[in-house]
From TrEMBL:
InterPro entries linked to this entry: Bact_Lucif_Oxidored (IPR050766), Luciferase-like_dom (IPR011251)
Residue span(s) of domain Luciferase-like: 29-260
Species per Swiss-Prot/TrEMBL record: Streptomyces niphimycinicus
Protein name: LLM class flavin-dependent oxidoreductase
Phylogenetic lineage: Bacteria, Bacillati, Actinomycetota, Actinomycetes, Kitasatosporales
Domain of life: Bacteria
Name of one Pfam family that matches: Bac_luciferase
Length: 339
C-alpha cells in the first residue's frame, strides 16, 4: 500500500552519462543501454544531465536522438540545458527535430545563468560579444517563442527553387507544453509559472526564507503554481537522489553508504555566497526511502519524480538501483506500472 495519500503518477530517473576520456563510446553506450532498460522496467521518463568540457554528456540532443531510435514509449528529457552556452534559435531547431524523431516524447529542461568558469571560457565561447551577452530569463523567453511557433523573421515564401518559412522548422506543435525550467529559487519558480513552463526541482535550492530544505522546496512549488495558468494542476517534478538497497550486494550497500556519508556535510547549512542548500541522499530499503519521502513536505506536493542516479557508480550499480526503484520503490509510493 502507498504511504502517501497522493499516489505517484510518473516515475523517472536522471543520469549524468559519465565516460572515460580514453573510451568515450563505452560510456555513451552505457547511457543508451540504461535508457533502454528504463523503458523495459516501465519507467515513464529518462533524463540526462548536461556537462561542458567535462566527462559527461555535452550534447544531450545527439544522445536523445539516438535514444529515440532505440525506444518507443519512454519520455526523454534534459535536466538541464544551461542556456548560457546556447543560441536559442539553433537550440529550438534541435529540440523540434528530436521531438519529431521521438514522436512527441521530448521534455526539454533548461536553466539560466552565466556558463561555469565563464572568465576561462568566454574568449572561445563568445569572442566578440562576451561582455554583451545576457544570461538571464530573456534567453529562455526567446527559446519558448521559437519552440511555440512565433515568427522569427519577416520573410517567407519562394526564392528561386527554395521555400522559406518565417518560423523554426520543423515545428512540433506539442513541444511548447513540454518545456521545463530547472529552478532553485523563488524568483525562478515565479518566472517559470508566469511563462507557462513546467518546473523541475532537484536536490539543490537557494536558502531564502528558511534553512529547512523541504520547506524551501515547498515554497518554490507553491509559488510556481500560484503564478501558473494551470494553477494546482501545473506540472512539477522532483529530482532527489535515492539509492534503494533491496537487492544490492553487501559490497554495493557499503559503497552507497560511503557515497552518501561523504556528501552529508554539505547538507547541514547553506553553502557559499549564494546560500545553496543540498538535500541528503536517501539510502536504504525501498520501504525506508518511501517513509522518508512521505514525510518530505515538498514530495507530498508532487506526483512526478525524476530520481537522480549518483554520478560515479558503475553500470551494474545503476541496473540494481533502477530495478529496485521500478519494482519496489515505485509501488511503495503508489505508482502503477506503465503498460
Amino acid at each position: 500500500m502507498p504511504l502517501t495519500s497522493k499516489p505517484l503518477r510518473k516515475l523517472g530517473f536522471l543520469t549524468i552519462g559519465l565516460f572515460d576520456e580514453a573510451d568515450p563510446h563505452r560510456g555513451h553506450e552505457s547511457t543508451l543501454r540504461i535508457i533502454e532498460m528504463g523503458e523495459r522496467l516501465g519507467f515513464d521518463s529518462a533524463w540526462v544531465r548536461h556537462r561542458h568540457l567535462q566527462y559527461g554528456i555535452s550534447s544531450p540532443m545527439a544522445v536523445l536522438a539516438a535514444a529515440s531510435q532505440r525506444t518507443s514509449r519512454i519520455e526523454l528529457g534534459t535536466a538541464v540545458i544551461p542556456m548560457g552556452w546556447e543560441n536559442p534559435l539553433r537550440l529550438a531547431e534541435d529540440l523540434a527535430t528530436v521531438d519529431i524523431l521521438s514522436r512527441g516524447r521530448l521534455n526539454p529542461g533548461v536553466s539560466v545563468g552565466p556558463p561555469n568558469h565563464y572568465d576561462q571560457v568566454k574568449g572561445v565561447l563568445y569572442p566578440d560579444t562576451a561582455d554583451l551577452e545576457d544570461f538571464g530569463h530573456e534567453r529562455v523567453r526567446r527559446l519558448l517563442d521559437f519552440v511555440r511557433g512565433e515568427p522569427v523573421t519577416d520573410f517567407s515564401g519562394v526564392e528561386g527553387f527554395e521555400v522559406f518559412s518565417d518560423r523554426v522548422q520543423p515545428h512540433s506543435p506539442g513541444l511548447g507544453r513540454r518545456m521545463w525550467y530547472g529552478g532553485g529559487s523563488l524568483r525562478s519558480a515565479r518566472w517559470a509559472g508566469e511563462h507557462g513552463m513546467n518546473l523541475l526541482t532537484s536536490s539543490v535550492v537557494k536558502a531564502e526564507e528558511s534553512e529547512d530544505f523541504a520547506e524551501i522546496q515547498l515554497s518554490h512549488i507553491r509559488t510556481f503554481r500560484a503564478h501558473h495558468p494551470d494553477g494546482d494542476r501545473a506540472r512539477v517534478s522532483q529530482g532527489l537522489v535515492v539509492i534503494p538497497t533491496d537487492t544490492a550486494s553487501p559490497q554495493q550497500r557499503a559503497k552507497y553508504e560511503r557515497y552518501a556519508l561523504q556528501r552529508m556535510p554539505r547538507t547541514a547549512t547553506p553553502q557559499g555566497p549564494a546560500r545553496m542548500m543540498f538535500a541528503p541522499d536517501l539510502v536504504g530499503t525501498s520501504g525506508e526511502i518511501a517513509e522518508r519521502l512521505a514525510a518530505h513536505a515538498a514530495f507530498r506536493e508532487v506526483d512526478e519524480v525524476a530520481f537522480a542516479l549518483p554520478f560515479t557508480f558503475d553500470h551494474e550499480d545503476y541496473v540494481q538501483i533502477l530495478t529496485d526503484i521500478a519494482t519496489r520503490l515505485g509501488p511503495a509510493l503508489g505508482r502503477q506500472a506503465a503498460p
